[in-house]
Write a structure and sequence with these properties.
The chain has helices spanning about 5-20, 25-35, 40-50, 65-80, 155-170, 190-200, 245-255, 260-275, 300, 340-360; strands spanning about 90-100, 110-120, 125-135, 175-185, 205-215, 230-235, 280-285, 305-310, 325, 330, 365-370, 380-385, 390-400, 410, 415-420, 425-435, 445-449. The chain is an alpha/beta fold and about 450 residues long. The protein folds into two domains: about 5-20 and about 360-449, Immunoglobulin-like; about 35-360, Zn peptidases (Aminopeptidase, 3-Layer(aba) Sandwich). The strands form four sheets. Strands 1-2-4-3-5-8-6-7 form an eight-stranded mixed beta sheet, sandwiched between helices. β13 and β14 (about 410) form a beta hairpin. The longest helix has 20 residues, at about 340-360. The radius of gyration is 23 Å and the shape is globular. It starts with a helix and ends with a strand.
Length: about 450
């Protein structure tokens, strides 16, 4: 090993200089970004708003109003997109019957999530990537199922992003499967998402990432009057909710409080999004969600899946959960006129490029370990090949322990590497890289004693 070390060091120093270069965009993904249309997004939201109310408790029998009409309209759009997918996109409404909880549900409820699945072209690749928004909305009173509730931004914007991604991506092929979901029951307590997340856990589905979009189309805040359409927030949990008691010792011992799977996904969304979407900064927020609030990604987090929430930079609370009215010169209500469709276009593209890059990438490297058999100022990483996809090589990611983001990306086509960086001072991870430069999610190494 002593004879090989200088050679390894030479390779790494050479790669280190290359790591400073800007990573090129995948041409296919860059072209998809150009297809994201503000006009399409506006049309989706306009049609949803026209249904009057989408409260989960509203009518399911009326073809022009209520949650039933909304579910069917979304389903019809998915089926329309499926016609250009060469049979790879299929859609249905996944239903379950819930009994009243006498809090936010006061009657027996047929809950339905509208789901479209874009099957991957590799039959051996079981990975699933999800984009979601919630179909339902509410007025000032969550139990008000009859009054008008436009829900243009909360969460017509998230549903529009899901639809636009489905429209564009269904015309392309990916190795892995992508699922597009509009949930019901979010305002009633994340009901549709809990149903789906628990079902996915029971079925042992290989869900690798969930991008949940909720309130992502408005550019200004009340009270502070900040106007900003060049930043978007991505929320991710720190310590994992799922089986924390089993993992706490390892997390504490290795200092991995900032390296859970959802936090890694948030870093991935930031890097990939800023690579492809111009004039958009992704701001990582180190919380699972906004202060004391929740969203449809949370049930997935609680079942052990990597999931994040994407939300506009500055929320306007005069437009959330409000009856339409004017008080003291202030207009209340979540109406179409408050949406910034160029901002929504960028936030939609952020989802698209993250999903496409993940679904085009090989699967993650297997059995990534860091060798601790002896003390030293170099770091020896080992891994096994990815099981799916055509692999060009692997990126080694490095960052100092005080850094929020990965600082270096070093390329190798080997399954082992010795780095001239101390494991005392740096965190490491390994990504698979495909032939077009698409990267998998990073894997933080375990220990090889």
């Amino acid at each position: 090993m002593k004879k090989l070390l200088p050679l390894f060091l030479f390779v790494i120093f050479t790669q280190d200089s290359k790591a400073q270069q800007i990573i090129e965009r995948d041409n296919e993904i860059a072209q998809m970004v150009k297809e994201v249309s503000p006009d399409s997004l506006k049309t989706y939201i306009k049609n949803l708003v026209a249904l009057g109310t989408r409260n989960t408790l509203s009518t399911q029998a009326n073809v022009q109003r209520g949650i039933g009409a909304a579910k069917n309209w979304i389903l019809n759009k998915f089926n329309e997109f499926a016609k250009k997918s060469n049979g790879r996109l299929s859609a249905f409404i996944d239903t379950t019957t819930l009994q009243p909880d006498h809090q936010r549900v006061d009657t027996t409820l047929l809950l339905g999530n509208v789901i479209a699945t874009l099957k991957g072209i590799d039959p051996t690749d079981k990975r699933i990537f999800i984009i979601s928004g919630h179909l339902d909305n509410m007025r000032s009173n969550v139990m008000d199922r009859t009054g008008d509730a436009p829900g243009a931004n909360d969460d017509g914007s998230g549903c529009a992003a899901v639809l636009e991604c489905a429209r564009i991506m269904s015309k392309h092929s990916f190795g892995a499967t992508i699922i597009f979901i509009t949930f019901s029951g979010e305002e009633q307590g994340l009901l549709g998402a809990y149903y789906m997340a628990k079902k996915s856990k029971i079925q042992n589905l290989r869900i690798e990432a969930v991008l949940n979009n909720d309130i992502m189309g408005s550019n200004n805040s009340n009270e502070t009057n900040i106007i900003n359409n060049t930043q978007v927030r991505v929320f991710s949990e720190g310590l994992p909710f799922y089986e924390l008691d089993k993992n706490a010792k390892t997390i504490r011992q290795f200092g991995l409080e900032n390296d859970g799977i959802s936090r890694q996904l948030a870093r991935y969304v930031k890097e990939t999004g800023e690579r492809y979407v111009d004039n958009l900064q992704v701001v990582m927020v180190y919380r699972n969600d906004r202060f004391l609030r929740g969203g449809d990604h949370t049930p997935y987090v609680e079942n052990g899946f990597a999931a994040v929430r994407i939300t506009e930079m500055n929320e306007n609370y005069t437009r959330q959960h409000q009856d339409i009215r004017t008080e003291n010169g202030i207009q209340y209500g979540d109406v179409l006129e408050h949406i910034d469709f160029e901002y929504l276009r960028k936030n939609t593209a952020l989802n698209l490029v993250s999903l496409a890059n993940l679904a085009k990438a090989p699967s993650r490297p297997e059995a990534v370990t860091i060798d601790v058999l002896k003390l030293g100022n170099t770091t020896n990483l080992n891994w096994q090949p990815s099981k799916n996809g055509k692999v060009k090589g692997y990126y080694i990611l490095l960052r100092e322990t005080t850094s929020a983001f990965w600082q270096k990306k070093l390329f190798t086509n080997e399954l082992q590497i010795i780095l001239p960086y101390s494991k005392d001072n740096y965190f490491f991870a390994v990504q698979s890289v495909g032939e077009n430069g698409n990267e998998s999610l990073p894997v933080v190494p375990g220990i090889n004693r």
